[in-house]
């Protein structure tokens, strides 16, 4: 990694590091790909790709990096950011909380006040999708695709095959949406919102595009590849906070302690992490553990966090702001 503040990271060094990490983690076996996706495209369960994009716009990828995969639950974090940006903080908080649920992602429970616990479990993600402005399903999805594409610096689209597979198995998500409608939380027709939510889950990306999305979040909302401001700073701060506390399903606490990077995983084996001010990381490997997180993805993030000292709670001098306020003496 570069040490000089004005010198850009060398992409070849990054690629060499990623190639080493892939070799190191490839042998990690265990886990099974999600059964409902396996029949969609005959995807090789041993596919494996890793990419990074730094906040100064340097990109590197390795492995099966040209293959596209569905965002799945990773989309929940991105849609939350778009909802915050479009609606503002308070209107979103009135509809969906920010507390870890401690239960599985598709749990059929709501807060006592009727709100889903957080936007990264299915109930909260369905609620959040409904907050995207637009008169109908198509309008909401057009806006989301535009924002997702801005974050990725690429034109993204929905995989119809994945969406068809999702729609054929949507009973539990429909149950969640009806539950929200019964609690007067969903303003719209429940089945329409579920169709939209499943379409956002079916947006396909390459690992490099996913790393760029993460890097835009890490860079305070400015896409480091296109130079475009996509999200405001408070939006990415709020989004990363929820990713940190809730992004890895009911393994989020362990992830926070061991890896220390705000992240979001998906049932396709996708994993995206944002290290504020530093870089975005993405991995894709379809074999999942019991909590639904990619087994090798966890291995990649553990290794990169240790190698590059990325744990966001590592000890560092954070007194600069206070020193400025107190005239230079705070903290000695
Ligand atoms: N589309 C999936 C669902 O809602 C997403 C699940 C996931 O990635 N955990 O069932």
TrEMBL record:
Source organism per UniProt: Micrococcus cohnii
Gene Ontology molecular function, alphabetical: glutaminase activity
Enzyme Commission code: 3.5.1.2
Keywords from the named record: Acetylation, Hydrolase
Binding partners and assembly: Homotetramer.
Designated name of the protein: Glutaminase
GO biological process: glutamate biosynthetic process; L-glutamine catabolic process
HAMAP family the record matches: Glutaminase
């Amino acid at each position: 990694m570069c040490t000089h503040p004005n010198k850009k990271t060398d992409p070849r060094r990054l690629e060499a590091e990623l190639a080493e990490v892939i070799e190191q983690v490839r042998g990690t076996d265990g886990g099974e790909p999600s059964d409902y996706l396996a029949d969609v495209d005959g995807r090789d369960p041993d596919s494996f790709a890793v990419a990074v994009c730094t906040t100064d716009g340097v990109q590197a990828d390795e492995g099966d990096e040209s293959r596209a995969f569905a965002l799945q639950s990773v989309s929940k974090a991105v849609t939350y950011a778009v909802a915050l940006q479009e609606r503002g903080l308070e209107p979103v908080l009135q509809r969906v909380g920010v507390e870890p649920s401690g239960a599985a992602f598709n749990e059929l429970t709501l807060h006592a006040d009727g709100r889903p616990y957080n936007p990264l479990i299915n109930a909260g993600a369905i609620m959040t999708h409904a907050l995207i402005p637009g008169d109908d399903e198509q309008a909401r999805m057009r806006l989301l695709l535009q924002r997702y594409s801005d974050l990725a610096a690429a034109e993204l689209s929905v995989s119809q095959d994945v969406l068809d597979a999702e729609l054929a198995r949507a009973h539990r998500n429909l149950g969640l949406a009806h539950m929200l409608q019964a609690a007067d939380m969903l303003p719209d027709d429940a089945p329409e919102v579920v169709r939209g939510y499943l379409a956002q889950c079916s947006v396909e990306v390459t690992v490099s595009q996913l790393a760029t999305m993460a890097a835009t979040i890490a860079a305070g909302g400015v896409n480091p590849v296109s130079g475009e401001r996509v999200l405001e700073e408070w939006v990415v701060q709020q989004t990363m906070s929820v990713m940190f506390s809730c992004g890895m399903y009911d393994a989020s606490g362990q992830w926070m302690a061991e890896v220390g990077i705000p992240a979001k995983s998906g049932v396709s084996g996708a994993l995206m992490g944002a290290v504020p001010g530093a870089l975005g990381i993405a991995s894709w490997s379809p074999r999942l553990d019991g909590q639904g997180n990619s087994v090798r993805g966890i291995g990649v993030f553990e290794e990169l966090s240790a190698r590059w000292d990325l744990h966001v709670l590592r000890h560092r001098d954070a007194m600069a702001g206070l020193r400025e306020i107190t005239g230079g003496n705070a903290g000695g």
